[in-house]
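sry for the spam today, last one i promise. struct tokens for design, 547 residues
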């Protein structure tokens, strides 16, 4: 037996072994010839094929709940996207392309737009290609790519997983997920954690190894690949009590468990899952496709729809975070050499304050319409002066609670002064890691540096939390770090007062907090912060929190 070892980032804990099931790669590029004899007839095949794919995805959505359902519904909607279909039909009619090729080209054009936008939008490229592959498979009568039918327990190995692949995975059969690409903040990581499946991402070389069996350590990120079958060994998962819906430690210290949302659909799902409120409403997600600034009334209506399920509950609305990974056509400069370091987030408003003023007016209106307890916060703040500038404008708009995100190391290092200028802060660990380590958060190759267990990142969190404690002001975390059940205990121990995360993680994080006293969390935090690297930090926390 020959074995090789690949190292990735462990994003969901547990040790397992078993046979490898490889997730099929996307279909080969469809040929541009022969031209169809009847272009209209060929174009007319696209609509029904799309309807069939959308229906199947919608049926799968019906059979699952929560986040998985939302993902499958989104993918189903994308399969029926009228613009994509109209563009494909046009390519058949105007250029005489066979329908599968036309779908491929229309999807690639869309994907190129998203990829050039970068970041969050670039993550959608995988979804668009996945939908195109399903349509092409339907049109050509071939099996769609993706997760194979499993007849027994297996370790799934893939280049990356599309949301629709992971959404309805059966945790009884999937021993672990291992991906060659992806990063700690991607959806594979989030879903694996919510399903309790061990997972390792950014494990370079796992595909080339062509392994038959694998041993996976979701804690250390180590994947041992073997050219011979490996006996099935199932992860030992400590039984976790269900979360009772109140965020607190075992001895009653409150740590709010909140949801991150970007739409009214997210808000409804978060409320149904028992979120105590919203710690981050990414308002830019409401307007990603807008080509001009939405008017105050349109903004007010969009925000009110998302706030409605949280009447009487706290909701932190973040002002537009445009630029870099989430460009908005009406706001973002397109010619910056380095958009992540450019005029993004609140910086857009320094030259054009009327934009933030109009948004604050709309948010105040939506708060009045819905009765949600609304606070506002600004993204990408670097100095106390900027924080004070934003708080003044929020108060002028009649919003009493104003805060800022801590995502820039300078803001973390000036936490005391920043907190003096505002009512609360929320740490965006995704960007704070990216800027602290000078490592693009979207690059699989740099995933290790963006690991939220990096001690240097934890030390910055500690510094901010201490400043909050000294001033009696709340310090939240709303980056993906908050979605890791083990890390949640460490963050609470560092003094973080609320955790805001993707809805799928609420139950696991709430239950995990409820297992330990604050003194234990503090001890876990002390030992994790004192380590030299992420694996040691995880192990140190686990040793204290007995996982
Ligand atoms: C973050 O940077 O951690 C954050 C929560 O903001 P976003 O992911 O929207 O950039
Ligand atoms: Mg951010």
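last one done:
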């Amino acid at each position: 037996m020959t074995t090789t070892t690949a190292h990735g980032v462990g994003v969901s804990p547990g040790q397992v072994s078993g046979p490898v099931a490889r997730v099929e790669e996307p279909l080969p590029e469809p040929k541009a010839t022969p031209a169809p004899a009847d272009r209209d007839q060929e174009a007319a095949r696209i609509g029904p094929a799309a309807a069939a794919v959308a229906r199947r995805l919608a049926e799968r959505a019906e059979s699952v709940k929560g986040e998985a359902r939302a993902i499958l519904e989104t993918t189903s909607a994308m399969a029926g996207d009228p613009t994509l279909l109209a563009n494909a039909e046009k390519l058949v009619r105007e250029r005489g392309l066979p329908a599968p090729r036309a779908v491929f080209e229309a999807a690639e054009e869309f994907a190129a737009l998203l990829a050039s936008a970068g970041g969050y939008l670039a993550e959608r490229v995988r979804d668009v290609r996945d939908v195109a592959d399903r349509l092409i498979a339907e049109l050509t009568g071939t099996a769609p790519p993706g997760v194979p039918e499993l007849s027994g327990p297996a370790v799934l190995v893939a280049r990356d997983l599309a949301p629709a692949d992971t959404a309805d995975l059966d945790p009884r059969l999937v021993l672990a997920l291992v991906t060659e690409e992806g990063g700690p903040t991607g959806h594979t990581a989030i879903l694996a954690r919510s399903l309790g499946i061990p997972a390792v991402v950014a494990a370079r070389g796992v595909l080339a190894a062509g392994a038959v069996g694998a041993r996976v350590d979701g804690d250390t990120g180590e994947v041992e690949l073997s050219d011979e079958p490996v006996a099935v060994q199932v992860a030992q998962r400590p039984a976790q009590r269900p979360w009772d819906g109140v965020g607190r430690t075992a001895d009653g210290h409150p740590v709010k468990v909140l949801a991150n949302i970007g739409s009214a659909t997210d808000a409804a799902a978060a409320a149904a899952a028992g979120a105590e409120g919203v710690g981050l409403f990414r308002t830019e997600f409401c307007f990603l496709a807008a080509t001009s600034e939405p008017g105050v009334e349109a903004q007010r209506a969009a925000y009110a729809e998302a706030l409605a399920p949280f009447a009487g509950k706290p909701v932190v609305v973040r002002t537009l975070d445009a630029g870099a990974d989430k460009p908005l056509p009406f706001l973002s400069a397109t010619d910056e050499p380095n958009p992540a370091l450019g005029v993004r987030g609140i910086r857009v408003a320094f030259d054009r304050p009327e934009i933030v003023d109009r948004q604050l007016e709309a948010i105040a209106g939506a708060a009045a319409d819905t009765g949600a307890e609304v606070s506002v916060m600004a993204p990408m703040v670097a100095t106390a002066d900027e924080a004070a500038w934003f708080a003044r404008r929020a108060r002028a708009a009649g919003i009493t609670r104003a805060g800022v995100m801590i995502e820039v190391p300078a803001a973390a290092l000036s936490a005391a002064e920043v907190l003096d200028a505002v009512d609360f802060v929320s740490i965006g660990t995704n960007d704070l890691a990216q800027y602290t380590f000078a490592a693009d958060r979207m690059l699989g190759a740099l995933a290790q540096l963006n690991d939220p267990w990096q001690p240097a990142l934890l030390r910055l969190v500690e510094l901010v939390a201490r400043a909050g404690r000294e001033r009696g002001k709340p310090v939240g975390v709303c980056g993906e770090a908050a979605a890791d059940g083990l890390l949640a205990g460490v963050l609470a121990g560092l003094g973080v007062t609320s955790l805001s995360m993707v809805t799928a993680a609420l139950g696991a994080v709430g239950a995990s907090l409820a297992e330990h006293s604050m003194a234990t969390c503090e001890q876990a935090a002390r030992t994790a912060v004192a380590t030299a690297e992420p694996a040691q930090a995880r192990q140190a926390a686990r040793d204290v929190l007995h996982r």
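The longest strand covers residues 15-22. ok im logging off now
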